[in-house]
């Protein structure tokens, strides 16, 4: 009997391995609705590819990431993403770079990247950073105070943030494991959706009075992600 169980386990593992190797490709955009008529297709999962013979050095080049960005906004930060929209040669390469500027006491509000993990390095100033694990892992908070040269990793899909606790500006650079990692800023998405989510739903979810939700939904939610 034990031999049969062992054999069955091997079969299950083999099937799991086969299924994993035959899985669908990861999405490179929020959604890609199928159409039956190819003449009506405008988007693909990613970008259409240029003929390699027509490629040139400019397809792999971007300049200006050394220039400080304007942080005079409600959240006190500015994110400059150098993704496939700015460097066409990033298509299919699975990477993105970003510069984040922080005003004194500015923050990059809690957000997630649904399609990529992030590695962040501080090049100027101090940052208090962290991420929260999923429900499955007990919503644990992992935080660090980073100085110049310090590095921190935010796993894919985890809600994370950065806050500048100092009187001086801060600058960080981040790499992401997707040509278009996507950004979901929690407050903007929940309270600033178009059209708005039914306030009764959010009032019950956040366990607050409905008027609190309605007030939040009337507020302007700034997008610091260029």
UniProtKB/TrEMBL annotation:
The keyword Translocase does not apply. GO terms for cellular component: apoplast. Disulfide bonds join 32-49. Mn(2+) binds at residues 111, 113, 118, 160. It is found in: Secreted, Extracellular space, Apoplast. Residues 1-22 form the signal peptide. Oxalate binds at residues 108, 113, 118. The keyword Lyase does not apply. Keywords: Apoplast, Disulfide bond, Glycoprotein, Manganese, Metal-binding, Secreted, Signal. Its main location: secreted. It comes from the Eukaryota. One of its GO terms (molecular function) is manganese ion binding. InterPro entries: Cupin_1, Germin, Germin_Mn-BS, RmlC-like_jellyroll, RmlC_Cupin_sf. Residues 65-214 form the Cupin type-1 domain. May play a role in plant defense. Probably has no oxalate oxidase activity even if the active site is conserved. Belongs to the germin family. This is Germin-like protein. It comes from Cannabis sativa (Hemp).
């Amino acid at each position: 009997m034990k031999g049969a169980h062992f054999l069955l386990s091997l079969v299950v593992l083999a099937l799991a391995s086969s299924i994993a190797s035959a899985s669908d490709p990861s999405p490179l955009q929020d959604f890609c609705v199928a159409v039956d008529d190819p003449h009506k297709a405008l988007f693909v999962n990613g970008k259409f590819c240029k003929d390699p013979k027509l490629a040139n050095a400019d397809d792999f080049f971007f300049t200006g990431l050394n220039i400080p960005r304007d942080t005079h906004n409600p959240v006190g930060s500015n994110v400059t993403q150098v993704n496939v929209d700015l460097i066409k040669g990033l298509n299919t390469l699975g990477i993105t770079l970003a510069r984040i500027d922080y005003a004194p006491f500015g923050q990059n509000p809690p957000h997630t990247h649904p399609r990529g993990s992030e590695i962040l390095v501080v090049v100027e100033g101090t940052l208090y950073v962290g991420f929260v694990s999923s429900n499955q892992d007990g919503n644990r908070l992992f935080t660090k105070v980073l100085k110049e040269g310090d590095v921190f990793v935010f796993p894919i899909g985890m809600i994370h943030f950065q806050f500048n606790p100092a009187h001086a500006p801060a600058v960080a650079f981040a790499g992401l494991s997707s040509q278009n990692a996507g950004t979901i800023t929690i407050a903007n998405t929940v309270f600033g959706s178009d059209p708005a989510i039914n306030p009764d739903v959010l009032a019950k979810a956040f366990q607050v009075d409905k008027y609190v939700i309605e007030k939040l939904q009337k507020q302007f939610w700034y997008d610091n992600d260029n």
